[in-house]
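Course assignment 3, question 2. Fill in each field.
Student: A.L.
Task: Predict the tertiary structure for the chain below.
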Amino acid sequence: MNPMEVLDIRQLIGETTEYDKKLALEVKKPKSWCKSVSAFANGIGGKLVWGIADDDTLIGLVDAKGDAEKISEAIKAHLDPIPDFNLSFAKCEDKEFVVLNVMPGGQTPYYYIGDGQMQAFVRVGNESVVASVSKHKELVLKGSNMSYDSLVSRWKFENMSFTVLRATYFNRTNRSFEESDYESFGIINEKGELTNAGALLADYSPVRHSRLFCTRWNGLDKANGVMDALDDEEYSGSLVTLLQAGMDFVRRNSKKAWRKTADNRLEYPEYPERAVEEGLVNALIHRSYLELGSEVHIDMYDDRLEIFSPGGLIDGGAIKNTDMVNMASRRRNPVLADIFSRLKYMERRGSGFKKIVSAYKGHDGYKEGMEPSFLTPWDSFVLILPKFNIAGIEGVYVSDRDEVENNHELIGQKGGQKGGQKGGQKGGQKGGQKNDERSIDIILQLIKDNPAITRNELAKTIGISHSAIQKHINRLKVDGIIIRHGGDRGGYWEVSEDKIFDKLHR
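Answer field:
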């Protein structure tokens, strides 16, 4: 036990992210404060101070030394396992206080045992509450140095296909996905068994609650329900598919402004694509997949975009008093995080929040107070991205929704009228062509892996519209790369490797 310290007890509390206070030690009701000890140990640690009233009035203790001894005895009697802690005394305004400092534990869950009960507690806001079923499972895994995504799934690897993952890896790294990569990526373990990470990344992911709900609401809230939504989609499949589909949905329901330069064009979206992608990657990778009945949501309103993800900060607690930009990286699903890092969708350093903020501050429409918001309401995580008023940026052309969705070429032509049609088309088509080539690569890989695949199955797997699928199919047919034999039912695709070679070497 530490000796008496003369300090400002209010300063001590102010510097603590997680803390609780008690007026006096309730010897006969140890649960009233032991639950906070359990919650702190199961989370990021915290401090418990005796001698402070609910209204923050400094009352002090009559027998601080005696109370400290009873606190130590109660922790040893009612907590299992016993967490690391230390007790100290504080003095302020001639009043004495006891300060209990609980360290974050590595043997979670830490249970309170008493009154015929054995319960694990976690922090939600400024309260200590009984851990939910999903949170309790997460604590068990944490205490075993394991994670959900590393566990063996209940599905068979041989029944899964990974065309989207393989094609995306090649498209983004220019490296082929080798058979040995399944184990090195964590898709399977050393015994060849499919992990939960593998199940989440399979083309037709069997993890039912791994879905993405996207809605463009008409107005500033959900008051009028889905019936009044301007656009509403539900996506399933590989996490890579969910990411790509979510990004396409945001693009489809956003406008862009652009300004022509001497040799290029500058684009100013309503929502910085880098910020949206980082936010969606974070939501898909760091969500709690132990939380059933809840999915990742993208909700677009007239003034903002919100991304909701089940599961709060991994160590519990709230964002209040937390520096989100510079906070240490803690990964709920380290296997998934590593895979998306290999796909070059995120960095291992965990700088996603910093990138989101930087993307906003680098936008020409940025004004003080437009920073993204990070919230943790009831064991969940919400990213709020304010909408830029791109029409207010001087000297830009604002595209309408149809141009954003369907016609990159038209935008380029309009932008290039003054500097020449050729230059305008090049600038306007650049982004669209990049996305088209990516989709074509994936379509081609899907057809190679399954010659009997239908157009509907292609659209569902990739997460793009049927019309877009048909456009890409027509292009491949014209180039002689694919040939269709038979009808939609019972037919199959034939791929010409010679034509692919010719195309690559033009």
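Instructor remarks: The chain has a mean pLDDT of 84. The chain has three domains: 4-143, 213-331+340-406, 432-504.
Grade: pending
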